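Listing S7. Sequence submitted for prediction.
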Amino acid sequence: MFYRKKFRLRLPSRTLVLGERTLIMGVLNVTPDSFSDGGAFLDSQTAVARALELERDGADIIDIGGESTRPAAAPVSAREEISRILPVFEALRGKLRIPISVDTQKAEVAEAALAAGAEIVNDISALRTDPRIAEVTRHAHAPIVLMHMRGTPRTMQRGPFARSVIRDVMTGLHGALARARRAGLAKSQILLDPGIGFGKSQEQNFEILARLPEFARLGCPIVIGTSRKAFLGKALAKPGEPPLPPAERILGTAATVTASILGGAHIVRVHDVAEIARVVRVADSIVDSVRGTGKRKPN
């Protein structure tokens, strides 16, 4: 079992302590075409209700996105993305006790969301799509999640996949850190995500989880998102049967969340917050028992 390092992450309105317990990032897709819940929360009132529900269920952060990044997804304009998420941010102002993250690759969208109350930027392209996100984030004194992705959402699962996934992800995250530092971002404000499912094969996703402690060498908090992803649908299916649909992948999500926590993840990004909060409490109890503390803060 890996002993994860503790970090203090400064947000505009508060400081989050990472590593004492696992934090849960609840997913809220305000999109018509996301792989798992596309269209379910496209209406702003429904999205607001869902955000409040995620908080009640135990989320520590809400991650709101207005552009699908599922495999083969087509990009949308910044204007369209802003039109989807901004009413949600504005309606949530003052209603949540927990911070909101904006899931975007575009500086214009990040800037609008930060002005409307977002406190974290989650960039799946790790500053490759729009490097100006670094400047926007720095000016807002907000942290940023940089994720490894091989290719783009439209092309990432076409292959060829990396011959050595750990080397490929490690090199990509080193590059992301270098871009961020050149842009003036403090390392203490950077989180890293190895990008499960983003340009990786079935086997490579599991290899990343098995070797997660190796990424601690990069010196940043680790974010992991396995929730409802296609590789779980395949792994859960009986031999000869088709992959299970997203709604039936919760047990696979639970298993990978547990593995992530035991491997040193600081934040897990999930759709099913109420169920996974219970999983996190048990996994954190295992970590605490090995540390000899027997203590943790409840989610």
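Caption to Listing S7: primary sequence and predicted structure tokens for the chain studied. Residues 288 and 294 are 5 Å apart (CA to CA). The chain has a mean pLDDT of 92.
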